[in-house]
Write a structure and sequence with these properties.
mainly alpha; 59% helix; single chain; 153 residues
Length: 153
């Protein structure tokens, strides 16, 4: 899934403005301007559209974790994971929103995209593990839709 789509979806879910997105990315340890964020939020075919890089997305998701859960100053910031995959996005959202396995199933069920427990746990395995499965765009899109229903009510 395109990073811009994920960014737009999370922005809508949390009902935050562009300035807050800039602040969240800054929390993650990266600097962007409000104009860049505006360009990220535009649709592909709109004039001024700018693709959101994996680096910006990684810092945004780290910043989202700090925004939702608070930042522990005693711990050093972990290096970002690149390239950004749907599995990493799913993991970061799980951490940021403090979701347990049952919550994940409920969210996907609410989005009318139920998955089995083994299918879900396979998404959180390390790449290269025997039971690792890549997260598809459809699953991530439905997860974001279900999480939006949960957050916004």
């Amino acid at each position: 899934m395109m990073n811009n789509d994920v960014l737009r979806s999370i922005r809508y879910m949390l009902d935050i403005n562009d300035a807050k997105v800039v602040d969240i990315i800054k929390l993650g340890g990266f600097e962007v301007t409000k104009n860049q964020v505006v360009a990220f939020m535009k649709k592909d075919e709109e004039e001024g559209f700018e693709p959101c890089s994996d680096e910006v997305m990684a810092h945004f998701l780290d910043g989202l974790v700090f925004f939702k859960r608070g930042k522990d100053e005693s711990r050093p910031q972990l290096p970002i994971e690149l390239p950004m995959t749907n599995n990493i996005v799913l993991k970061k959202l799980r951490v940021a929103f403090e979701l347990k396995e049952d919550d994940m199933h409920a969210i996907l069920k609410a989005a009318e995209f139920p998955v089995s427990k083994p299918e879900l746990s396979a998404l959180f395995r390390k790449a290269g593990h025997n039971n690792y499965r890549p997260c598809g765009d459809q699953l991530l899109r439905n997860f974001l839709r279900g999480l939006t229903l949960r957050v916004r009510g």
